[in-house]
Design goal:
Shape: extended
Number of strands: 0
Strand content: under 5%
Radius of gyration: 22 Å
């Protein structure tokens, strides 16, 4: 545990012992969390419209495709077909990373990570 987490846990425990959380509004009731709390504020209206129309955000759609492709690749026996699906999987992962505006993470694509590591070690 890092030092900040230890300090935070200690402060929370002290506040609980002193009864500082006993008079909070909504105490004992379930939290009402909005479904779109994870969506950036500028996209919430568009995502809500998509949701009401029975669609999911593009990022989730691609993520679901990635999960399906990984499952399919594990079950394929034909090496040629597996390579085609691996290329598609790599493309989908890169596409998702670009949508998220984050650098490509090799941890999300272990097959590609192993190839990169093999190439680096053989050089």
């Amino acid at each position: 545990m890092d030092i900040f987490r230890i300090i935070a846990e200690r402060k929370i425990s002290e506040a609980m012992e002193q009864g500082e959380f006993s008079c909070l509004p909504g105490r004992g009731k379930p939290l009402v969390l909005s479904d779109d709390a994870w969506v950036p504020a500028d996209l919430r209206i568009a995502y809500r419209i998509l949701k009401n129309a029975g669609h999911i955000p593009p990022e989730l759609e691609i993520r679901n495709e990635i999960i399906s492709l990984r499952d399919l690749i594990e079950r394929l026996d034909d090496d040629g077909e597996r390579m085609k699906k691996l290329r598609t999987l790599n493309f989908k992962i890169i596409q998702l990373e670009m949508m998220r505006k984050r650098p490509l993470g090799l941890k999300n694509n272990p097959a590609y990570e192993y190839r990169v590591m093999d190439r680096m070690l053989s050089s």
